[in-house]
Amino acid sequence: MEDSVVEKLEQRITQLEERIEALQEQMPKDQLSMVVFSGDLDRVLAAFIIATGAAAMYERVVVFVTFWGSTAMRDPNKRVPKAELTAKMFDRMLPRGPKQLPLSHMDMFGMGRAMMQAVMKKKGVLTLEQLMQQAADFGVEIVLCEMSMDVMGISRDEIRDYPNITVAGVAKFLQEAGQSSVTLFI
């Protein structure tokens, strides 16, 4: 009789261990995921400030850059000829990298941006390019939205050099966000 009790206990322990393992696999990871939808200087600055701060707190930081935010990742020194008319139009109308991003408010044809950048320099605040470099140094991963790039005519050849960058679809972001303990949208 004692053998059957021991066997039942062993079976129950095995079942509980399997349940615990399944729950552990479903638990959020020590990770922050962020969507950067905006292409406004102040919002992209905020995203990279948060990303670099989060890199000190979380094991992993993943930033999904989509639509207008994609323009921040363009390298102003990389020019790629465009075949389609809409791609040519987007190429001329969209900002080419961090220095050309407008402010969300009071941009005033770039004067507001210049004022903001001057105040930031005076106060010793890192530029967006410096924050991007710091994020790269801290291991922040960037996922560029492939569909947004296609729609806006942005090619992989004109993206700035960044060590932890990939081009992927929304499924990749959903996978990352689904396992993150924190998810933000900017």
Automatic annotation (TrEMBL):
Bilayer-spanning residue ranges: 44-69
SUPFAM superfamilies in the cross-refs: DsrEFH-like
Coiled-coil ranges (or none): 6-33
UniProt cross-references to Pfam families, sorted A to Z: DrsE_2
Record's keyword terms, sorted: Coiled coil, Membrane, Transmembrane, Transmembrane helix
InterPro entries reported for this sequence: DsrE2-like, DsrEFH-like
Descriptive protein name: NADH dehydrogenase
Protein source organism: Solidesulfovibrio fructosivorans JJ]
